Every structure is written in C-alpha cells, then in structure tokens.
Amino acid sequence: MGSEFGRIDPDGTVFVITADGEREIGSWQAGDAEAGLAFYRRRYDDLATEVTLLEKRLESGAGEPGSTHAQAEALKAQLATAAAIGNLAALADRLDALLAKADERAGEKAAAREQAKAEAVAAKEALIAEAEKLADSSTSWKSAGDRLRTIVDEWKLIRGVDRRTDDALWKRFAAARDAFGKRRGQHFAALDAERGTAKEIKERLVARAEELSGSSEWKDTAAALRDLMTEWKNAPRAARDVEDALWAKFRAAQDAFFARRSEVFGERDAEQSENQKKKEALIGQAEALDLKDPKAAQSALRDIQSRFDDIGHVPRDAIRRIDERMRAAEQRVRDAVDAEWRQASAETNPFLTAMRERLAEAEAKLERARKSGDAARIAKAEADVEARRALLPQ
Q: In the prediction, which pLDDT does 230 show?
C-alpha cells in the first residue's frame, strides 16, 4: 500500500519516495498498512512542526540567528536518514531558506553591533569634548565639578566599545578632569587669601535677607531669597566661626519669611487637602471596577478620569502617590481589555487550532494504548502527547 511520498510492502517494509528514488526507512508489523503510513506521516509532521517553530522564532526575533542556523543544519542533516513519509524535498527547501535567512539576520546583528559601537564611541567623544571645554574655560566651579561627576556616571552607562578604544578615550577624559581640578585648586587657593572680602559679601547677603523677611510679595520675595541662597553658595567661605554665625542669621531671616508665608497659605492648603480626598475617592471607584466586562469597565473608567481631571490641585507631597494609584487603576483596566483581546485572537489562530487538533489525536491514541495494556505502546503514546503539549504556548 502506498501514497504520493511513501509506501509499505506486503512484507511490512516501509519506503519513502524522494527525488533520488525510494529509500527504505523501517518495517511496520504493528497493524494494517494505512496505520503504518499514518505513523510515518506523523513523524514527518513532527519534523515539519520543528521547522515551522524555527521559522516563526527567527521571524519574531525570539530565536538567535546562530542558534537557529545550528538547529536548521541539524534538522537538514536528519532528512537524509529520516524515518518519515512526506515531502522531504520541500522540507529541505524550507530549511535552506531558513539557513539563508539566519545568515542574513546574523549579518544584520553584526552590522547593528558595529553601528552601536560607532554610536557609543561618538557619545563618549561628545562627553570628552564637553569635559575639555569645562576644563579650559568654566568658572562655575560647583556646577562644572558636578557635571564632570555626572559625566562619569553617563560614561559607565555607554556600552559596546572595545577595551583598547575605551581606555584611550578614558585617558582623554581623565586628562581634562585633572586639568579642571588643577585650575579650580589654583582659584580657591587665591580665594583663601581673601577671607575678609568673603565676610563683607556675606554680611551684605544677611542684611538683604533680613530686609526681605518682612515682605508680603510672596512669589517675588521667595525667588529673591532663592537667588540670595545661590549667591551665598557661590561666594567664597569666610573663617569657620564667622561663616557659622553669618549663616545662622541668614537662615533665620529666611525662616521668618517662609513661616509667615506658610500661615497665609494655610487656607489654600486646606482646599488642596479637600481636593486630595475627592481624588482618592474617585481612585477607590476606579480600583473597585468589575473586570468581568472589560469594555464596560473601560467606559466607566473614562467617566472617572474626566471627573478626576476636573478636580483642582492637591498637596505637593501627595501628587506622586495619587498619580501612581490612578495609573495603577488605569493599567488594571487596560490589562483586562488587552487580555480579552489576546484570548479572542488566540482562539482564531489557525496554527494553534491545528496543533490542538494534533494534541487531541495523540491523547485519543494514548487512551487506546492504555486500554490495550501494551507498556511500550503506552510509553510511546505518552511521549507523543507530552511532545505535542510542549509545542503549545501556555
């Protein structure tokens, strides 16, 4: 008995038909010829399934080109001796195409790595140029020093540069940083000789802060006091005892102003606290939405979001916590909607449907094998079921 791609002789010898002629692949004595052909066709289907999975993983990006190439080579090598009945030539053509595609993807990844390396080198050279500019001309000692420290952190995050190139680039950056440090040291050495001038500067800042402490121009005065703080930080330091005494007076003037402002803003804070309660109540409604009907929950969420947005400001220290809770409630609904969509999509996937049907066939054969009591047959059927279950996505 035979088919387009194979046959079984009356004596049970099994042949597969290839472009080079027939090839003996086994012997079938376990039942009628039709069952034997079905058995060997299933083996072919298993091979075809492996090829399909490799194709899909490579196409989706889940499969590494090198690993895919090796697996495809191994599968192709099996075809010459495969004990399976089916269009082995077509399967070989698919594997050849898969090997070519894997090589192409490997080339693309290599090119991407080279591109990433070039971009990483360019990024580090940009940081070096910035550091060299700071070392050459910056007089904003604190901000420039902070920026140089930040550059080190950014430098560590840039990957993909080979060790030799990276060492050469780092030496250039380190030289610029050292030059900046030397120039800054010289600058402050000169300032140490001007302690008297530092005292006069900070006495003026204290006088100005005390003058502003009685102002009721909240916004402008707060900005002015912040500017005075910036001036204080940028000014040279006086002797330790003088510095501490002037700082206490300067800080007391600031505290007096901000204490009066806090009292005036109490009413506004009360309103913001009430807004916080309203927003938290709406968040509670969003968190309690029933997700059995994701679309209805999504519609209800839109109404809650609209009312949420209409409420005014909340206390600054509550903004982040409230926003995080609202985003979490919104994400919960979005996840439910996405899950519903994915389930509907999976149920209509023809490839998954075919795989489920094959699993059902394998499970039916397992049941028959168990009834027969044949241990070898049961073990083989169990292995077939497990293999097909493993192919299905969870």
A: 92
